Amino acid sequence: MLIGENILLALNGLRANKMRSLLTMLGIIIGIASVIAIMTLGDSISSSVTESMSSMGANNVTIGVSQKSSTEETTASGMTFSMGPRFTQMSEDDYISEEMLDDLQERYADSIQGFSLEESVGNGTAQSGSSTANISAIGVNADNLKNADLTLLAGRTLTSQDQDEAKKVILVSDLLVEKLFNGDNLSAVGQKLDVLFNNRYYSYTIVGVYEYEESTFSSSSSEDTVTTMYLPLQTALDQTHNRNGYSQLTILTKAGVSATDFCTTIETYMNNRYYKDNDSFEISAMSMESIVESMTSMLSTVSLAIAAIAGISLLVGGIGVMNIMLVSITERTREIGTRKALGATNGSIRLQFIMEAIVLCIVGGIIGIILGMAIATVATNMMGYAVSPSVTGIVLSVSFSIFIGVFFGYYPANKAAKLNPIEALRYE
Asked: Which residue numbers delimit the ABC3 transporter permease C-terminal domain (predicted)?
C-alpha cells in the first residue's frame, strides 16, 4: 500500500476509536504541551530581559574602582598565603581623575565616543505645598543625558551653560509633575522645587519634564515610586563636595566596537598604567553585552533542563502507543492474515502499522503544541512579558513525535508482519 493510503487508513482508525485514541495520545499531548509551554515561556522572558537590558546600552563599558580581591601575606616562617579584601577608605589618589579620562580618550580615540559621568546626590523628598514625591537625584554630564535617551514632554534639557556654571536647574519626570503640579507639565516648567536631603532643604528650578518609563523589574506602587531627578554634574559635585574624581563611570563606545573585548583592554591598561602600585584598589570593567549573553545562556540552559524533565512524560506516552498498537494487532489478527493471504508482503504490513503509530503521535503532538502555546500565552501575559514562540521547541516536538511513533511502533508492526497467515486466519 502507498504511504498516502496508510495515512488515510490510520486517520479512519482514529475516528473509529475516538476515546481510545485520545487516551492513548494523552501522554504525548501532556509531554509536548509541557515542553512547548516551558520553552516558550523561557524564550519570552529571555527576549524581554535582553531587550530591556540592551536598551540600557549593551555596547557600553562600565568601569569602577573596586577593592583588590586578595592580598598576599608572608609569615615570619616564610609561608605565603592569601587574605580577603581589606576594606580601606578611598583616598584622592584612588579615584578616576579627569586626567585619566583624557588619556583614555586620546589613546583609544577610535573606540571611545564619550564618557557618561554621574554623581549620585542621594534619595530625597521633593515638596510643593502639602504634596510630596520620592526622588533620586543624580548629577549627569551631556553624554550621560544623551545616553539616557529621555523623551522630553515640556521645557528644555540641561545645556552646556548649565553644566559650566553649575546652575541649580533640574529635569523631573511627568510622574512627579502629576503628584506635585496636578499633571500640568507646561506650568511645572520654571517652578521652584524644594528637595529634602538628610534633613536639609535644597532649592532647584525645573527647566524640563521627561516621560517616566516604568522599569521591567519594577514592582512598587505608583505612590511609592522613586523617579530620577537630573541636575548638572558640576552642581551635584558641588553639593556633595566631591573634588576627588569618579569611583564609577560608563564609557560610550563607537559603533562596531566589541564591548566585551574592550572591557578587557581598558581594565588591563588602567590597572597597569595607574593602579599597578595601588595596594588596595584596582579597576574592574564590565559590559551590558556580556551580562546579556550570560543571562540569555543561563535562562536557555534552565529552560532546556526543565523541558527535558517534562519530556519524560513523552516516554510514558510512547509506551502507551506501543501498548495500544499491540492491542490493535491482536484485534486485527484476521485482517492481517487476510491481507497476507492476498499477497501483502511483510514490509507493507510493517509500514501500515508504523504509519498508524506515527499518525497517532503526530496528531497528539499537534494538539500538544496548540495546548502548550495557549498555556505559554496566558502565563507570559500574566507576567507582563511579550509572547515569543519557541520555534526550536515546536520543531523538536514534531520531530520527537515522529521519532516516538517509529520507535514505539516498530515492535508491534514487526510482530504483525511476522504473523503466520494460516494461523492468523484461524484466529478467533
From this structure: 308-421
Residue 98 lies in a domain: yes
Q: Crossing angle for the helix pair 18-54 and 346-383, nearest 10 degrees?
A: 40
Q: What is the pLDDT of residues 210-268, one digit of tens each?
A: 999 876 445 455 567 899 999 999 999 999 888 788 888 888 888 788 888 888 899 99
If asked whether residues 312 and 274 sit together in one domain, one would say no
d(CA 7, CA 1): 10
Name 246's Cβ contacts closer than 8 Å, sequence gap at least 6.
95, 96, 117, 119
Total domains, the chain: 2
Instruction: Based on the fold, state whether residues 30 and 120 are members of the same structural domain.
Output: no
Q: Is the pLDDT of residue 160 over 60?
A: yes
Domain hosting residue 352, numbered range = 3-52+295-426
In a domain, 11, yes or no: yes
Q: CA angle 146-152-156, nearest 5°?
A: 85
Instruction: Indicate whether 124 and 227 sit together in one domain.
Output: yes
Q: What single string gives the DSSP state of each residue in 58-88?
A: TT-EEEEEEE-S-EEEE-TTS-EEEE----P
pTM: 0.57
For residue 228, give the amino acid letter: T
What is the CA angle 190-192-195, rounded to 5?
A: 135
pLDDT given for residue 52 in this prediction: 62
H or E element at residue 54: helix 18-54
Last residue of a domain, one of 253, 284, 315: 284
Residues 363 and 251 in one domain: no
354 plus 273 within the same structural domain: no
| Domain limit, last residue, from 249, 284, 319 | 284
What grid cell was written down for 325? Answer: 498498537
How far is 390 from 72, CA to CA, in rounded Å?
A: 50
Smallest CA-to-CA distance from 264 within 99, 111, 86, 71 is with 111
Three-class SS of residue 311? Answer: coil
b/e code 378-391 from CB counts within 10 Å (16+ = b): ebbeeeebebbbbe
Q: Which three cell numbers stand for residue 168?
A: 541649580
Q: Is residue 354 part of a domain?
A: yes
User: In whole angstroms, what is the distance from residue 413 CA to residue 29 CA?
Assistant: 23
pLDDT of residue 171: 95
